[in-house]
Amino acid sequence: MKAIIFSGTHSRHLYIHSEVIKHFDTVLIIVMKREELLPIPPPELSTHDLKNFELHFSSRKVVEDEKYGNINPQKIFERQEVVYVNPNELNTHKIAEKVKNFNADFCFIFGSYLILEPIISVLPENKINLHLGLSPWYKGSATLFWPFYFLQPQFAGVTFHQITENPDAGEIIHQCVPELKHGDSIHAVAAKCVIKAKDDIPILINHFKKQKKFSGLKQKTSGRVWRASDFQASHLRVIYDLFDNKIKIGPENSASQATKVKGFNSLLRGLTKT
Question: In terms of residue numbers, what domain contains 142?
Fold first, then answer.
């Protein structure tokens, strides 16, 4: 079987795709260059917000380096055809022609920007995006941050969904949540989400190979699409000033609570890795 992968350049993207490529004979990988993992802070921040901002993103890098390791994309993708693009080169006729000629059976997306025309119409029927967030409740950007801000850590999870031109709005194929522990940091939970997603990928792909398709659950509520511009450094005061970056787990916000919410969809019930 042949697969197309759209990836970003952060370690979490490469960590996931290192698993996906194991399950296909031939893979075309479109790698889109992402922003730096340690962003430059906005110039107008107060001293206190600047401290939280730098702590937040430096802590993310420490956790991701620890959990995913120093991943070399050249080594992971050494036997595959790889095309590197800048963000403004992603949704172009040049890439669409490349995708069309490859004639893949399956498409997996994680880490690139939103896939639009002219590419969507030339992708295979089974095209899946991995979204770090539980749709429809948390769609868009920073969707493993907002559940903590709104004191809903049980909504930190992962959604595998079909692709549409709207962000994270396609039919839900599978969702999963990690086990939460009292005192987990926000980035530790995010890493748990990525690791849980990687663990579920072999089961999903094996299911696809047997069934030749996925059946998804339509999203019945619009939810909210969070934009990158919605995030402000002042939001970090909730995480670091009020809770010292340590979640508190009770019966009302354990991970199992999210799986009971109407609209949560897991297709792995009853499926195995064999």
Answer: 2-259
